[in-house]
Amino acid sequence: MPKHILLGVSVRHLTGSSQLIHILNRFGHTISYSAILEIETAICDNITDNDHLFPRQIRTDNNLVTHFCWDNFDLAEETLTGADTTHTTHGIVIQEVSGTPESEVTDERETLGCQTETDKATSVIEKKRRSIA
Hints:
Structural class: alpha+beta
Shape: flat
Radius of gyration: 29 Å
Strand order of the largest sheet: 1-2
Distance between the termini: 80 Å
Order of helices and strands: HHHEEHH
């Protein structure tokens, strides 16, 4: 976007002042306040029309139980100014999908390349059988 659009949108975001945007517009530095509102509305409409509420991996059919877990993370670092502290929000979505075809299910042991206790016991029994025979 050109400077005169970005400046107006940024000033509106930072200050919310229509008077400041009107002054900057009169000096020729930015577009009008109403034009900024039109652009922001068009951007929001575009995002709403083209975006999905959930990622594609989350299924919204068959009334599946879905768990949403969100938590805020506030790290109050000690700084000279008291600014520059960390504030973030993290979330996960857990959904158990039953009835997944066996071809899509991967065996965790194969993925990790490890043996379970049952596999180890079976291996020991097979070795003993071979040594007896």
